[in-house]
């Protein structure tokens, strides 16, 4: 026998679905408690709990005296969040640029199909590009995107807008999973990133979800000598006491 979900959870699922499908965009206003009580025939306590939990989980931001708004996932740049490298570089006061190496339609095989939870042969877009900071290469982005999630992906100029910015503009991400490891890069990665022969790379493997399914799988390669990840975690409901500044590498060197 199927047990019905509590009303507050049904209300949360409804709002999350609107965010996932793009009906509610980042920074859009979410219906107020009063509006939810009237339109969804729920109690004020139910509406309050749904909005409070969505806020705690990061889907929305409640601003005193103004209302509740969809979180702007696109602007975050932190080890503990999905990063848009262009925003990360701009935050340091530097200039971002990129060069596209490959932008093609492929059929999934092996670990890509497994990572995206699709059958072998499913259509995906493959994006391979180099990101630079002040003209110094710091990341090779090797990304696979489900074709039915972003059907216009091949029409985009990713030397103007990063894939991350474009994809979060289609539909805000629900979840992300990432693994960071050190690795000795192959010859192609070393050449793309202008690395020494014995220099290790920092590799971030990332999957992102939208509408309840994984939609992208990426490997982000960085030169170990000129890239670092930083993060500061504050539990929900706790005021941040540390400075917002993080320790950066002293110099960006080749």
Quick summary:
With 254 residues, the protein is of the alpha+beta class. 25% of the residues lie in helices and 29% in strands.
Plain-language structure description:
By secondary structure, the chain is an alpha+beta fold. It has 2 domains: 7-71, Winged helix-like DNA-binding domain superfamily/Winged helix DNA-binding domain (Arc Repressor Mutant, subunit A, Orthogonal Bundle); 76-226, Chorismate lyase (3-Layer(aba) Sandwich), CATH 3.40.1410. Helix content is 25%, strand content 29%. The chain contains 7 helices and 9 strands; from the N terminus they run H-E-H-H-E-E-H-E-H-E-E-H-E-H-E-E. The strands form 2 sheets. The chain has a 6-stranded antiparallel β-sheet. Strand 5 and strand 6 form a beta hairpin. The longest helix is centred in the N-terminal third of the chain and has 14 residues, at 7-20. It is elongated and about 65 Å long.
Percentage beta strand: 25-35%
Which blocks of ≥5 consecutive residues have pLDDT under 50?
A: 74-78, 244-254
**Strands across the major sheet, in which order?**
4-5-6-9-8-7
Briefly note the structural class of the backbone: alpha+beta
Instruction: List the domain count as a whole number.
Output: 2
Please tally the helical runs, counting DSSP H or I stretches of 4 or more residues.
7
CATH class identity of the largest domain: Alpha Beta
CATH fold-level topology of the largest domain: Chorismate lyase
**Name of the CATH architecture of the largest domain:** 3-Layer(aba) Sandwich
């Amino acid at each position: 026998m199927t047990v019905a979900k509590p009303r507050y959870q049904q209300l949360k699922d409804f709002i999350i679905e609107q965010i996932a499908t793009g009906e509610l965009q980042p920074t859009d206003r979410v219906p107020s408690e009063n509006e939810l009580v009237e339109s969804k025939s729920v109690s004020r306590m139910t509406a309050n709990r749904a909005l409070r939990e969505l806020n705690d989980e990061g889907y929305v931001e409640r601003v005193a005296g103004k209302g509740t708004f969809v979180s702007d996932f696109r602007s975050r740049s932190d080890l503990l969040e999905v990063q848009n490298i262009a925003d990360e570089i701009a935050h340091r006061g530097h200039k971002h640029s990129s060069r596209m190496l490959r932008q093609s339609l492929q059929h999934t095989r092996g670990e890509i199909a497994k990572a995206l939870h699709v059958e072998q042969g499913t259509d995906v877009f493959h994006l391979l590009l180099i990101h630079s900071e002040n003209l110094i290469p710091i990341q090779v982005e090797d990304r696979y995107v489900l074709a039915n999630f972003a059907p216009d992906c091949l029409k985009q100029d990713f030397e103007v807008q990063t894939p991350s910015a474009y994809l979060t503009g289609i539909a805000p991400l629900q979840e992300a999973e990432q693994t960071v490891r050190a690795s000795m890069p192959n010859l192609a990665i070393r050449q793309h990133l202008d690395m020494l022969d014995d220099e290790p790379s920092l590799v971030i493997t990332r999957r992102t979800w939208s509408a309840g399914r994984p939609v992208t799988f990426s490997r982000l390669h960085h030169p170990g000598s000129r890239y670092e990840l930083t993060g500061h975690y504050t539990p929900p409901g706790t005021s941040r006491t540390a400075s917002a500044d993080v320790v950066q590498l002293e110099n960006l060197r080749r």
